[in-house]
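quick one
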Amino acid sequence: MLSFDTDGAFQDNYKFLIGSILPRPIAWISSVNDDGSHNIAPFSFFTAISAKPMIVAFCPLIRTSTGEEKDTARNIKKNKDFVINIFSENLAEKVNLTSAELPYGENEFAHANLETLNSEKVKAKRVKGCPIHFECQFRDFLSYGDTPGAGQIITGEVMKVHVDESVYEEGRIITQKLRPVGRGAGNDWFKCSDTFQLERLMKAQIQK
Ligand SMILES: Cc1cc2nc3c(=O)[nH]c(=O)nc-3n(C[C@H](O)[C@H](O)[C@H](O)COP(=O)(O)O)c2cc1C
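structure w/ flavin mononucleotide:
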């Protein structure tokens, strides 16, 4: 077994994180720029936090190329809302396109040729063609520093959920219809078509 301290270069720590914590779900996050134009980018340091209130979190890192905060973080702190677009396999390449480092304010929806839908409760737009949208109001911000690779946590309260009928049956989202993808290390992505079931052992069953 090899062992490593974590006080070296951020790249080394980053490789351990992305190689160990996977597959990671991907939040495709739209936000509003200062001039009212729209921004979108993917974030795989993303998770659910609370069911009621319904809270989600994601983590933009300080940009390693410039040492600046990511546009998504800047926008959400200023404009106070965002949308998490949950996408299917067919949109993966467009998602990847929106991770390009464009100059602040350049419309990434146009860059990836994406159509938008208005949201009901927030200013940020939804991506047309995504089967699930979470309209989120900004809740919390935590920062772990301002050097390249330092993380931030942004949480949002989901105020409205939109689910396309094509992935929804009898009150449940059907994974096989949603066809989600996950992120791995390096350039790896995962398809989630190979699922298996294990019955959950509730306390009552264990005591039998
Ligand atoms: C699938 C995928 C997942 C990503 N996840 C993250 C992440 O969790 N945190 C992060 O800081 N950057 C992540 N990135 C890189 C950002 O998307 C990229 O830095 C983007 O330019 C940020 O855009 P913004 O400046 O408009 O916010 C990811 C990129 C890809 C392709």
